[in-house]
Amino acid sequence: MFTRVRMSYQESAPCVAVVGVTGAVGQEFLSVLSDRDFPYRSIKMLASKRSAGKQLSFQDKAYTVEELTEDSFDGVDIALFSAGGSISKKFGPIAVEKGSIVVDNSSAFRMVENVPLVIPEVNPEAMSGIKVGMGKGALIANPNCSTIICLMAATPLHRRAKVTRMVVSTYQAASGAGAAAMEELELQTREVLEGKPPTCKIFSQQYAFNLFSHNAPVLENGYNEEEMKMVKETRKIWNDKDVRVTATCIRVPVMRAHAESVNLQFEKPLDEDTARDILKNAPGVVVIDDRASNHFPTPLEVSNKDDVAVGRIRRDVSQDGNHGLDIFVCGDQVRKGAALNAVQIAEMLL
Asked: Does 258 participate in catalysis according to the annotation?
C-alpha cells in the first residue's frame, strides 16, 4: 500500500511543513519521515514564537525553527500538524486556503463532517481523490492514539465477522500527555524512591507507582473525553453508526506505548484460531501470543516500533458459541498512534 522513495532532493517532490516540530510528536514526525525515506523538495520547521530561532538537525542538515504565522504555508504542499487543537483550528483552515493538504493530529476536526478520519490500513478509501497536485487544499484528521491502536487489531476481525459491540479498557502511557508528562513521571519516580513528595504539575496526583482515570475532562454522562473519542471515532472510521462501543481509559506509569484490553462481540461466529490467522496476516500487526510461556504483548516490546502487537487471543466464555473474543493490544502511541499514521497518510497523497 505504501510506496517508499529513496530520500533525496526531488524537484517533483512535495514541499512539507511540520507544525509543532519541537514537541514530542513533532520530533517523532521528523524521525518517521527520515526512517521511511519520505521524499520532499523542501521542509519547513514551524513552532510557537517561544521556539522560533532554535536550531534543529534533520537529515544531516541544520534548520532554523520558524514562528508559525498566517504566511507560513505559501508554497507548502503537505502540512503535518501536531500543535494542539486551538492552533489547528486557527491555522489549519489558513493552510488549506493556501492550497496545503493538512494532516492534523489534534482532535479539532476529527468529528467534522466531510473531513476524512483515516487509519491507512483500515479506511484508506475515506481520503480517495485527495492528492498532492490537485490544485486545492484539504483537511485530513489523524484519529486519537487509543482509537488507532485498537482498530488496527479489531478491524481485520470486524471485516470477517462484523463487530456489533466492543468493550475497551486502556492502559495509557505518559507519552500520550507529551514530553513534559514523561519527564514528570521520571522525576516523580526518583522523588518517591528517595522518600520525597512527588512533583505534580502535569497531573494533579501522583503518577509514579500509581494509576488513575485518564486526565481528560469528565462529561455529563460520566465518560471522559478520551473514552467518548473512542466511541465516536470508531463509528466514523468503520462508517457504522450502530456499532456499540464503551471504553474505560486509565493512565498507567509507563513511559511510552499504550496497552488495551478489547472485548469483541460478533454478528457471525469467529473462532480464536481463525482470528489468530487473520491477525497474523493483517498489515501493521504482529501477533505475540505464546500461552505456553505466558508471553504476550507489553508496552516495552512495542516502544519505538511501527507495528501494533496483539495477543491473549481467546474465546469470550461469557458468550455462547464463537460470537465473542478477548484480545490484548499494545502500540507505540507516539509512532503508530500519532506520527507514523500521519506520515502514512502523507504517503498516500503522493
From this structure: yes
Within the chain, strands assigned E span 15-19, 42-47, 55-58, 61-64, 66-67, 78-81, 101-104, 138-141, 163-172, 212-213, 244-251, 258-266, 285-287, 308-315, 324-331
Instruction: Look up 145 and say whether it is catalytic.
Output: yes
Strand order in the sheet with 66-67: 66-67, 42-47, 15-19, 78-81, 101-104, 138-141
3-state secondary structure of 57: strand
Cell of 34: 527520515
Which of 15, 150, 214, 258 is an active site residue? 258
Identify the CATH homologous superfamily for domain 146-333.
Dihydrodipicolinate Reductase; domain 2 (3.30.360.10)
DSSP string, 133-181: TSSS-EEEEPPPHHHHHHHHHHHHHHHHH-EEEEEEEEEE-GGGG-HHH
Q: How far is CA 74 from the centre of its chain?
A: 28
DSSP state of 231: H
Residue 135 confidence (pLDDT): 82
Is the CB of residue 43 less than 8 Å from the CB of residue 30?
no
Task: Give the C-alpha separation, 340 to 282, whole Å.
Answer: 17
Instruction: For residues 334 and 332, give the distance between their C-alpha atoms in angstroms, rounded to a whole number.
Output: 6
For 15-143+338-348, CATH number out of 3.30.70.20, 3.40.1110.10, 3.40.50.720, 3.40.50.2300 equals: 3.40.50.720
Q: How far apart are CA 21 and CA 287, in angstroms?
A: 33
The residue annotated as part of the active site, out of 15, 145, 150, 330, is: 145
Q: Mean pLDDT for each consecutive 10-residue tract of the chain (350 residues)?
A: 48 92 92 96 95 94 96 97 94 97 97 97 96 92 97 98 98 92 97 98 96 96 97 98 98 97 98 98 98 98 97 96 97 95 97
Nearest to 44 by CA among 18, 67, 83, 70: 18
